[in-house]
Amino acid sequence: QVQLVESGGRLVQAGGSLRLSCAASGRTFSTVAMGWFRQAPGKEREFVATIRWSDGRIYYADSVKGRFTISRDNAKNTVYLQMNSLKFEDTAVYYCAAGARYQYFGGRYSHEYDYWGQGTQVTVSS
Questions:
Q1: Mean pLDDT to the nearest integer, 85-112
Q2: Is the pLDDT of residue 91 over 90?
Q3: Percent of the chain at pLDDT exceeding 70
Q4: Residues 2 and 31: beta-carbon distance below 8 Å
Q5: Quick one: CA dihedral 47, 87, 58, 66, positive or negative?
Q6: Predicted confidence (pLDDT) per residue in 18-73, tens digit
Q7: Other C-beta atoms within 10 Å of 45: how many?
């Protein structure tokens, strides 16, 4: 089992920045990639960004490209999501996820992940 704990979510004004953290513990050696997803009220969970442990391969959703940066600290088993130029529509619960299987779709889909954190709320005021 892998446990994931997100932190860093809070209320921020539009145009501001936040950094989310996701600390992984347990059988982290079994995971191949980490991802961030988000879910706004009344909407489905959507992909935000993903990073692969082995080579740092990264993908972003088009909606956050150029504003968000995902990074990893392998020694700390921690993944970060730096969010800049935040917009009202970025308001959501942000979830960290870990995948333990080969990701045929590059980690862009929630079904490619095996473990999920509890989520952290990000609220952007307009």
A1: 93
A2: yes
A3: 100
A4: yes
A5: positive
A6: 999 999 998 888 888 999 999 999 999 999 999 998 888 999 999 999 999 999 99
A7: 16
| Contacts within 8 Å (CB) and 24+ apart, 51-54 | 51/79, 52/103, 52/107
Residue type, 78: T
Three-state SS sequence of the chain: CEEEEEECCCEEECCCCEEEEEEEEECHHHCCEEEEEEECCCCCCEEEEEEECCCCCEEECCCCCCCEEEEEEHHHCEEEEEECCCCHHHCEEEEEEEECCCCCCCCCCHHHCCEECCCEEEEEEC
